[in-house]
Amino acid sequence: MPAVERDAHDAGKQSARLGDIAYEKMKERLIRGTFGPGDKLTVRALAETLGVSSTPARDAINRLTYEGALVYAGPKTVIVPFISPQDLEEITLMRLALEGLAADRAAANATSEVVLELEKLQSQINDALDSARFTDALWWNKEFHFSIYRLSGMPHLLTMIETLWLRIGASFNDLYPEFAEKKYGVHNHLAAIEGLAERDGASVRAAIESDIRDGHRRLKKANRERSAK
Amino acid sequence: MPAVERDAHDAGKQSARLGDIAYEKMKERLIRGTFGPGDKLTVRALAETLGVSSTPARDAINRLTYEGALVYAGPKTVIVPFISPQDLEEITLMRLALEGLAADRAAANATSEVVLELEKLQSQINDALDSARFTDALWWNKEFHFSIYRLSGMPHLLTMIETLWLRIGASFNDLYPEFAEKKYGVHNHLAAIEGLAERDGASVRAAIESDIRDGHRRLKKANRERSAK
DNA sequence: TTGTGTTTTTTGTTGCAACAAAATGATGAC
DNA sequence: GTCATCATTTTGTTGCAACAAAAAACACAA
């Protein structure tokens, strides 16, 4: 008789495992921009920082490495990755495919409550940009996107999209001051909200794809300017 | 019996880590259908099977769990997953998006050598089906698909597609005897080869998408029939 | 300054024992 | 038989020491 299938990582359950906690904390820091490309990570340092032994610290670093959020710079050296133009190109294409799908499928499950929540998130993005709190703007931007993707009701898809964000997250953060321009993305976000209100999958997809493309264009530009220095 | 071949992205890597070796072996077995849905995995059992200590065995099981190739059936119980209709639906949509992209981008890098290799792989699929060696047919089918996707030159994409195959792999294998029908997929595969020969990305994409959709349809049907018993 | 060979330190991995918690098996009441 | 309760066994996780290998620091020559 088959056992009842439970899903530990999906159910939003608080895992008591130290390794998972370490992983979540590191993920948060990577997204928040605590680290920059090239920063070196060691299991003993992380273990001490978190006050745990080396096993859970090692678990966290290994997992992040498997997911591409960290990379090997040598047999015994893991660092926050530098994103090459090719990497950025590839990941952008994958984001278009996956986030486009999520956006499309989100429309069917849109409610007026979600629309209100998204409008609130958008105003928080605007506020953050107005006061030059770029890290906050990036954070709310992420919340905005994932609030939409969550509507799709596709958990596998959601985790895959998240690992893509994690791969470029640190570089993104690193570039943001140059990357940010007032009103960036506002138009696309408003279009996405409108599409959701009308339950029009195709137009939500178009808005998100446009947002990703715009972001990619600016990121490439910022990267070029930085390299020139 | 088909030879064991490593994928392109880790072909050159001589990873001496026992945990990686354990992971690769388990991956191989899952794809090969050594396990069926519901089979329970334990670190001590795996450790003994492989003749290593619990640490690398645990590493392998944890990694497979993070990737979705194994799932928790309880706080201390990991099993080979049963794929629900919803899971299958979701993963199929993701496969269409990702493998469609890979197929599209493969066309630009197609060579006559690759076309020949694919024709050879297709004849091996046919041979295996003719002699009812379903596991082999499945194996060559995988080689066929990934030979195309490798052409895209997108390593991130390749590993993501692989994890998707791994998630449904065991169920796929489990159903295969009922799933297999002679000439299944031949038409789509030939269309893909033709598209590659003509460097026509759109038609390669269409062929692969059609193949995925056909497979999904048959898999759903087989699953229904089995549940009915 | 730059390169090169050498020494010292740091690092990830592995195996293993201890522990708490979960899974399993046994028992008994209804 | 069915279900609940208890005892036993099995399980994953954690911390830690040992080890080989890699990285960093150093010394010295050109």
Characterize the structure shown.
- Two copies of one chain form a homodimer.
- Chain A is built from nine helices and three strands.
- With 229 residues, chain A is mostly helical.
- Chain A has two domains: 3-79, Orthogonal Bundle (Arc Repressor Mutant, subunit A); 85-228, Up-down Bundle (Four Helix Bundle (Hemerythrin (Met), subunit A)).
- In chain A, strands 1-3-2 form a three-stranded antiparallel beta sheet.
- Residues 1-13 of chain A have low confidence and may be disordered.
- Chains A and B meet through helix 3, helix 4 and helix 7 of A and helix 3, strand 2, helix 4 and helix 7 of B.
- The structure holds a DNA duplex (30 and 30 nucleotides).
Going across the biggest sheet of chain A, name each strand in turn. 1-3-2
Helix residue percentage of chain A: 55-70%
CATH-derived architecture of the largest domain in chain A = Up-down Bundle
Outline of chain A: globular
Mean pLDDT of chain A: 89
Our count of domains of chain A comes out at 2
Q: Report the top-level CATH class of the largest domain in chain A.
A: Mainly Alpha
Overall number of strands of chain A? 3
> Which class of secondary structure composition applies to the elements of chain A?
mainly alpha
CATH fold naming of the largest domain in chain A: Four Helix Bundle (Hemerythrin (Met), subunit A)
**What fraction of the residues of chain A are assigned to beta strands by DSSP?**
under 5%
Uncertain runs of chain A: 1-13
Q: What is the helix/strand order of chain A?
A: HEHHEEHHHHHH
Quaternary organisation: homodimer
CATH superfamily of the largest domain in chain A: GntR ligand-binding domain-like
Number of helices of chain A: 9
Biggest chain-to-chain interface with counts:
A-B, 31 and 35 residues
Tell me the Rg of chain A in angstroms: 19 Å
* Distance linking N and C termini of chain A: 65 Å
